[in-house]
Amino acid sequence: MDIILFVIGVACFVASFLIFRTQKPSPLSLLLKFLSSVLIIVCGLLLAFRGGKLSHYSMPMLVGMLFGTIGDVVLDLKVMYKKDVEDSNMYMYMGFVAFAICHVAYSFGMESLFALSDVAWFCALPLWSWYLILIAPTLVMTVGTLMMLKMQHIDLGKHKPIVTGYCFVLSYMVMSGILLCILDFSTYWMLGVGFIAFALSDVVLSYQYFGDKGDNKFFTVINHVLYYIGQILIVIVGIGLIK
Questions:
Q1: Residue 71 CA from chain centroid, whole number
Q2: 3-state helix, strand, coil in the chain (%, to 5)
Q3: CA–CA separation, 49 vs 46, rounded Å?
Q4: Is 164:123 a contact under the CB 8 Å cutoff?
Q5: What single-letter DSSP state applies at residue 23?
Q6: CA torsion sign, 73 to 75 to 76 to 77?
């Protein structure tokens, strides 16, 4: 019941944010977006402390949520000040860095879930082998994403190095979630869906930042809906399953 109320609360804040955001980026829309992310953090904290004590396994996920919120705010500042190209690019880089840290933290959180999983043979493997298993699909996803953007005539220009690095970190996180689904689909399938939704929101965002969809209201809505679906599922499953 508490989870349902949490989802309804986030949905209300996100809907309110999008109503104002699709009209014109403003301090009010930024505040509503911030409150949406804060509510997700609050839910994460409640789940992390539900046993009366914070589990150290929950810490990476909470850190990821915090930096995700920072990235949320900073990237909206990019939109609010898009007429000033220098400031806009600065906010975009800051947002990329914040979300990259978010993805790294979530990836460490996935390692906690690997260690807590019931798949004995996988848990018995040394830590370095987990990285080895994930690196190949991560590279494939990174290269595939960049090729897809190029085929869609998305010109990254001078931003290509930072976008490539960000794409690698994002791909590693997504592949960590997918690996968990493969190991225990019935338990972690929602987490996999969450990470995929997160990644798709970034694909949509790339069309807005580097393509011709910057002011497209439909893309703005889809981007944020996918993003918040991803964050909600990551919180519920990623922290909710940690004992």
A1: 10
A2: 85, 0, 15
A3: 5
A4: no
A5: T
A6: positive
Evaluate whether 110 touches 180 at the Cβ level (below 8 Å).
yes
**Tens-place pLDDT, residues 116-161:** 666 656 666 776 777 788 899 999 999 999 999 888 888 888 888 9
One-letter amino acid at 35 equals L
| Secondary structure class of 55 (helix, strand, coil) | coil
Smallest CA-to-CA distance from 199 within 232, 230, 159, 155 is with 230
Neighbours of 183 (CB within 10 A): 17
Q: What is the pLDDT of residue 224?
A: 93
> What are phi and psi for residue 121, nearest 5 degrees?
-65, -35
Q: Residue 64 — very low, low, confident or very high, per pLDDT cuts 50/70/90?
A: very high
**CB atoms inside a 10 Å sphere around CB 148:** 12
- Pair of tokens at residue 3: 């989870």
| Token couple for 104 | 């790294």
DSSP code of residue 58:
G
Q: Are 194 and 229 in contact (CB under 8 A)?
A: yes
73 contacts 30 by C-beta, under 8 angstroms: yes
